[in-house]
Design goal:
two-stranded parallel ribbon; globular; binds adenosine-5'-triphosphate; binds magnesium ion
């Protein structure tokens, strides 16, 4: 059933991965595709309906074109807002378990988006990182670059690391999370030549989320 899937990573935590994921969901829905998403590992969860849940996973669940069980969307929900390899010390991430759930999701919709956690080398357990999860899911990666001071270094390092992992990078999205960023356009221009993958869209700074508008900024 799945025609296309993407793994959404970022230059850092708080880079704009969730906003980009939801905008991508709207983008594909505008093309009359069925879309679902996953946030397989989430730190920083709260109790809701008798289990730990996370804001990113709830947003992904709510914006899907069909109803998906929370456990499929977010199999690892850790209470503490710290790195998963620490937050999950008593219930460590098992990649095979996530791959199994992802395979179930693949049967349900045309587009499946998976949001990572933190950046490319963020550790998930004592031996595996986000890069290993992307590889296990065999999905092309979309890199979300938060346009802030330091982003050129972060973006180049991440692109090289994705390439080193042997995974295809479908492109990058510029997300302007900082309203006071100086020389924003010049930075984006520099990134266009520095990164050897296509720019899929530029998200301007929005004081209030408007995912329909952000979806219109995308070209895949
Ligand atoms: N285009 C935008 N304009 C203004 N603020 C934005 C924009 N995109 C994202 N933000 C804000 O930046 C912050 C980080 O965004 P987001 O939650 O998407 O990052 P993330 O990479 O998913 O973070 P995490 O690592 O926690 O999953 C959020 O507070 C969000 O509200
Ligand atoms: Mg997020």
């Amino acid at each position: 059933m799945m025609e296309k899937g993407y793994f959404i990573t970022g230059t850092d935590t708080n880079a704009g991965k969730t906003w980009a994921t939801i905008a991508l969901m709207h983008y594909f829905k505008m093309q009359d595709k069925s879309v679902i998403g996953m946030k397989p590992v989430a730190s920083g969860c709260f109790m809701m309906d008798g289990r730990l849940k996370n804001d990113d996973a709830l947003l992904i669940q709510r914006n899907a074109s069909l109803q998906i069980d929370y456990d499929l969307v977010n199999p690892y929900a850790y209470q503490l807002p710290v790195s998963p390899h620490i937050a999950g010390i008593n219930n460590p991430v098992n990649l095979a378990n996530i791959v199994g759930k992802f395979n179930d999701l693949k049967g349900l919709a045309e587009i499946v988006l998976v949001e990572g956690a933190g950046g490319w080398y963020a550790p998930l357990n004592d031996r595996e990182a986000i890069s290993d999860l992307a590889k296990a899911l065999a999905l092309p990666v979309i890199l979300v670059v938060a346009i802030r001071l330091g982003c050129i270094n972060h973006a180049k390092l991440t692109c090289e690391a994705i390439h080193h992992s042997g995974i295809a990078c479908a492109g990058w999205i510029a997300v302007c999370t900082d309203p006071d960023m100086l020389s924003r356009d010049e930075n984006i221009e520099t990134l266009k030549t520095a990164l050897n993958v296509p720019l899929l869209g530029v998200f301007p700074y929005l004081a209030n989320a408007n995912f329909g508008f952000l979806a219109e900024q995308l070209t895949l």
